Amino acid sequence: MNRENIRAVSDYGSTNGQVFGVASDYNQIRNVPVEPGRFFNNQDNAERRRVAVVGWEMLKNMFPGRPAVGSTILLNGINFDVIGVVAKVGRDGNNGTNSRIFIPIETMRDLFPMTKANSEDAISFINYRPITADLHAEAKDEIHRILARRHGFNPKMQDAFEDWDTIENMKRVGKIFDAMDWFLGVVGVVTLGLGAIGIINIMLVSVTERTKEIGLRKVLGATYRAILTQFFIEGAFLTAFSGGI
């Protein structure tokens, strides 16, 4: 369950953020690393304890430069003990988990029930994780069958509710990156080939236009190797200069 209209207040600041009521194993299914402190357990949930785990971004707004664990916050005027802080999720901190406050789902249902819901047991979403990634399709089908049985719709109706398959999405993203790697590799090879052809043409033109100079150098005693070295150095300089530009 989640609510976005709950005001969170501490002794040092206040903010509006998302409050999520979740099961005690939510942090094992989703990436919710807690440090310092702890995530709530089954007993916290069963006893509807007023405990909260605060996201990293919420921590900055409510406890700037101060420890949060052991403190008390108000959620719509109701006291909650902070038992944990969610460590920063994501490199830039823009992950939505950082801007959330987590409380036990039974506490949420008791104190902040969903508005405009047609059932007291209404929830916002279900998170599940297969035992292994290879079983995600079977797990998805099983979830459809369970929900279909409980809510009276055909389990073959894939659009009966909206779902998000993170494993399948990761595979699609992986294929996109693989295609990009292949494309960039081909572009790199073609670029190197064109560059090599260009250098060869430049060298051929240089040799053709400087035939008399080469002949004169040979008459004056220049060796074949010295002449090749000169052209190689000139070609390398032109290549480096062009690349720098």
Give a structural overview.
The chain is of the alpha+beta class. 46% of the residues lie in helices and 18% in strands. Strands 1-2-7-4-6-5 form a 6-stranded mixed β-barrel. The longest helix has 44 residues.
Low-confidence stretches: none
Average pLDDT number: 79
- What is the count of β-strands? 7
Task: State the end-to-end distance.
Answer: 58 Å
What structural category arises from helix and sheet content? Answer: alpha+beta
**How does the major sheet shape up?**
6 strands, mixed, barrel
Q: Helical content, roughly?
A: 40-55%
Any idea what the radius of gyration is? Answer: 33 Å
Overall domain count = 3
The strands making up the biggest β-sheet line up spatially as: 1-2-7-4-6-5
Elements, N to C (H/E): EEHEHEHEEEHHHHH
Give the overall silhouette. Answer: elongated
Counting DSSP H or I runs of 4 or more residues, the number of helices is: 8
Task: Tell me the β content.
Answer: 15-25%
